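re: ur question from earlier - yeah i can do the single chain one, its not a big deal. heres the input i used so u can compare w yours
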Amino acid sequence: MGNPAGTAPRQYVGKKYRRILLKLSGEILAGDDRHGINVQVVKSLAEQMIEVHRLGVEIAIVIGGGNFWRGEKAQAQGMDRVTADYMGMMATVINGLALQDFLEQMGLISRLQTAIEIKSVAEPFIRRKSIRHLEKKRVVILSGGTGNPYFTTDTTAALRAIELDADVILKATKVNGVYDSDPEKNPNAKRYSHVSFIDALQKQLKVMDSTAFSLCMDNKMPIQVFDIRQEGNLLKAVKGEQVGTLIEYDVQTRYY
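and the output i got, formated as tokens:
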């Protein structure tokens, strides 16, 4: 799972990774619309995934639902948190269906799996079945979070990456990496190219929520944070080119 401390990452012809876990936020799918699904954005994402798939990379995707619903926000407005979180899980299924539709229109076979059973539209998540799909070069879209309230889709991504023996979590965001301070508030903020898990903790860098981050650190699962809105960035990340910020277990922290 990941790469043990002190060992070099596994290398593959034309690509750095054999199997990736791509974490997509729901907000990415909304694009400039800020809510719902922007069809052109989903189409662009699907095209980027096809480029990566052509290298022979096995792709699992965990998708958020923030473009439709956020359980924490609903709770703050007086709603029961457990109910609100289940509604958020349903939102991730909507996003998963949209992404699956575009992938298959472009000829890329995919499987949508959910942590909560919705048999008419998706398979239930079964680890061994997911791995078999990946080995057959099918894209696996993992929706429904963990199936439990109070857990974020970041935690889902960390858990599924470890379960499926991914080489890395590629956290696709709207920002181009991790900074030492908020770049919107501090014009002199520095962006990291590489940062260790320990330094990220000590500097209180916002990479993932604490549960997700702890899972990755304990299991030596690398995390790469990058801006997926820049076309070609996903392919660059998979090829091992410098893009965004790479968080690893045993690495020297460096700035750009």
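The domain at 19-255 is CATH 3.40.1160.10 (Carbamate kinase). not sure if urs matches, ping me
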